[in-house]
Amino acid sequence: MNYISAFIVGGLICVIGQILIDVTKLTPGRILVVFVVLGAIVGSFGWYDKLIEIGGAGATVPLPSFGNALAKSAIKEVKENGLIGAFTGGIKGAAAGITASIFFGYLMALIFNPKTKK
Prior knowledge:
single chain, about 120 residues, transmembrane helix, transmembrane, membrane, Spore_V_AE, SpoVA
């Protein structure tokens, strides 16, 4: 049952992304930013943790989970270190994800020719 719920939750997140690509004039990069920001907003209210309980890896692998990790880390650091934690928390909590994003984004930019949507 865990595999089915992960497939459904992850699939729904991907379907939302595909609909945004097909229906809007948003570029994939902007859609990714929307997903991260929505994950941070939903995570700051604690709702994303409930989605992770239901969907498991289907909720932890996509981009909203990255936003959730940023929000949770920033909230934790603010509680521990005050306002400066709002700036350092996200970096500490998601350092591996940030590093991987930068590295693989740069690598893909070298390999492929990016195009804008018309």
